[in-house]
Amino acid sequence: MSSHLAITAKLLGDPGRAAILVSLMGGTARPAGELAAIGNVAPQTASGHLARLVEGGLLTVERQGRHRYYRLSSAQVGEAIEALMVLGAQGPRAAILPVRKSAPGTLEHARTCYAHLAGWAGVSIAESLVTRGLITVRDTKSFAITPTGSEWFGALGIGIPATPGVPAKFARRCLDWTERRHHLAGTLGCAMYRRFKELRWMAPVQDSRAVRITVEGRRRLWDLLRIAIQ
Fold it and tell me: How many CB atoms lie within 10 A of CB 19?
């Protein structure tokens, strides 16, 4: 186990590989050439980085014609990167950096973490769900959905398994790297963000992980959860 941790830490320790992984946090796939530019490395160097990340289980690759597209291998990889970013933000330099206001359109305000919602908006939604008794904290890594919560999510078109004993990974607690509090991840977190997009309450910002909350989204989140969004 410790050897696996050391191998993974070594993969994450290179600035180029770290930049590549962070760029894939939105859950999308990117071609090797684009990732080389993001990592600020030569194409040949990027190929080596990508091969190591695939071998290490952090990325998967899909070939389409002459191109190869890379994405994070799982939501758990995205959550682990998010948690490491929290640790990085707590380093010695963090104490002297000015506090940044969470302005609409920024990653701090609302963004995707793999395929679920993160940032101030994601944390605020999770905390309101807990306050209103729709979900509860099961343990340090997961939430549990209450009967009232099942009805609430169902009314929005977000399905909850009817069988008892919903697995912990269904509603995971993911530590937010900008807020340093938890947002809702796992299958439920992904389904909720996907539904909010279908309802046009939220929309991804082009070429970014940032998420824009629409006028209708702001109104509905206030009506449903009493979250005031700028």
Answer: 16
pTM exceeding the 0.70 threshold for the entire prediction: no
155, part of any domain: yes
Minimum mean pLDDT range among 80-94, 139-153, 157-171: 80-94
Domain housing 206: 111-225
Same domain, 182 and 133: yes
Q: What is the CATH number of the domain that holds 66?
A: 1.10.10.10
- Cβ neighbours for 41, distance < 8 A, ≥ 6 positions apart: 16, 49
Please tell me whether residues 8 and 69 are part of one structural domain: yes
Asked if 212 and 205 count as a contact pair (C-beta separation under 8 A), the reply is yes
| Bridge-based pairing state of the strands 67-72 and 30-31 | antiparallel
Total number of domains in the chain: 2
pLDDT value of residue 73: 87
